[in-house]
């Protein structure tokens, strides 16, 4: 079964989705702007309840698809196997991974319970950057979450999230590599499609 650590998805997914406002010039500014777009969706009474799950998740996924660089995430999760894939296979894998991330994050975001986020600085190296944050629970527990982003033109896109120093994409890479080595790339695609159907 393909899955990321529950804790990482439940907490990191809460703040990984952001839209890049035209006025933002730094990754942190974009991240701050994102919460102003995501939290109202989660708190909107008109979107609460099981009967509104479809509309609520559609709104969340619309934001997710606008901020992730799924191709870069796919390249990193496949590691050396990426170079052996055709362009068509790469596109298919990026689409399946993107769908998995979008759906999983949407389900975890629904667990939002008023946690707040503190921005702890950023580092920029050319077109790559890291935004450091801390998620503060209502009990005062701090969870460090780093966002790895890359710049394409005038926008920053998320390609990985580190929870307490552990890479989400590295976790997927370990799982995917094991499936490919013990079975085949085709089996990995079948499992991803099965996961897509189950979600």
What does this protein look like?
It is a single chain. This protein is α+β, with helices and mostly antiparallel strands. It is built from 7 helices and 5 strands, in the order αααααβββββαα. A 5-stranded antiparallel β-sheet has the order 1-2-3-4-5. A hairpin with a 2-residue loop joins strand 3 and strand 4. Helix 2 runs antiparallel to helix 3 and helix 5 packs parallel to helix 7.
Q: What are the low-pLDDT stretches, counting only 5+ consecutive residues below 50?
A: 4-11, 17-24
Q: What's the shape?
A: globular
Order of helices and strands: HHHHHEEEEEHH
What percent of the residues sit in helical stretches (DSSP H or I)? Answer: 40-55%
Chain-wise SSE layout:
Elements: H1 6-16, H2 27-43, H3 53-64, H4 70-78, H5 87-109, E1 116-125, E2 128-136, E3 142-152, E4 155-163, E5 166-167, H6 168-182, H7 185-198
Helix pairs in contact: 1-5, 2-3, 3-5, 4-5, 4-6, 5-7, 6-7
Structure characteristics:
five-stranded antiparallel sheet; alpha+beta
Provide a short characterization of the protein structure:
This protein is 51% helix and 21% strand. It has helices at 6-16, 27-43, 53-64, 70-78, 87-109, 168-182, 185-198; strands at 116-125, 128-136, 142-152, 155-163, 166-167. A five-stranded antiparallel sheet has the order 1-2-3-4-5.
């Amino acid at each position: 079964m393909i899955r990321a650590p529950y804790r990482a998805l439940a907490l990191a997914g809460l703040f990984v989705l952001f839209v890049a406002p035209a006025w933002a010039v730094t990754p942190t500014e974009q991240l701050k702007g994102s919460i102003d777009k995501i939290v109202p969706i989660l708190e909107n009474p008109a979107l609460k309840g099981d009967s509104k799950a479809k509309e609520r998740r559609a709104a969340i996924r619309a934001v997710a698809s606008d901020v992730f660089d799924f191709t870069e995430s796919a390249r990193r999760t496949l590691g050396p196997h990426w170079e052996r894939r055709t362009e068509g296979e790469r596109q298919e894998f990026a689409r399946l991974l993107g769908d998995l991330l979008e759906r999983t994050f949407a389900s975890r975001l629904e667990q939002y319970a008023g946690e707040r986020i503190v921005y702890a600085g950023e580092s920029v190296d050319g077109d790559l950057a890291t935004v450091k944050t801390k998620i503060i629970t209502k009990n005062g527990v701090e969870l460090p979450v780093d966002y790895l982003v890359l710049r394409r033109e005038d926008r920053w896109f998320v390609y990985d999230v580190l929870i307490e120093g552990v890479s989400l994409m590295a976790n997927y890479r370990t799982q995917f590599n094991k499936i490919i080595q013990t079975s085949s790339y085709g089996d990995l695609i079948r499992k991803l499609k099965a996961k897509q159907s189950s979600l």
